[in-house]
Design a protein that fits this description.
The protein is mainly alpha-helical. It folds into 2 domains: 66 residues, Arc Repressor Mutant, subunit A (Orthogonal Bundle); 151 residues, GntR ligand-binding domain-like (Four Helix Bundle (Hemerythrin (Met), subunit A), Up-down Bundle). The protein has 10 helices and 2 strands, in the order αααββααααααα. A two-stranded antiparallel sheet has the order 1-2. α1 packs across α3, α2 crosses α3 and α5 runs antiparallel to α6. The longest helix is centred in the C-terminal third of the chain and has 35 residues. The relative contact order is 0.12.
Amino acid sequence: MTVIEQPNSQNLHEAIFQKLRLLLVEGKIAPGSKLNERELAESLHVSRTPIREAIRRLAADGLVELITNRGAIAVQLSPEDVIHTFDVIADLEGFSGELAANNISDTALSELEALQYEMMASYARRDLSSYYKLNLRIHHLINQAANNPVLTQLFSQVNARIEALRFRSNQDGVKWEKAVEEHQEMLDALRARDSIRMRKIMIQHVRNKRDVVVQLLKAENAATKAETVK
């Protein structure tokens, strides 16, 4: 099949990058799996050039590991890696929330309220994909409201490693409901410009996700071992 690049190659390359990123975050490319350039190009109906560029960007973001003689592999974190990464993110988000409560503008607060409304609608539909995208936008907006470019860069770099795990942490109905409640508490703290409360909520929110993810990984590892023994 002859592949013809779209005229606006920059937009195409960005679209392919976002598509592959989403496949990784939603687990449609499983941790530890190889990213086959030829198969991905065929499935997305593009040449291998934007696929190759997207994989390089994903590797820079920490979502993909480039291994000699094996190619690009979707990152698979150990429980210890997960704990360490979530602990760093908890402090980053706590500081981000504290600064945001002090610095957020009325315009940004209104945007957050609108996103919260949309996210609640996604939660009511149990539309996890839509919910997660809105959830991520909310966390990024809070981070931006902190008005600290260095903090924003650090947050983006570290959070990229665990995006897929944060997505999966909402697949437990009870834990998902708790996360939704915590998001409402965040909004209330921002409205009150209560920086101390906001910091505590953000840290606890991330730590709760950490605990859910660690439990999930341990259960999966146990199931894998049990299957191997059979």
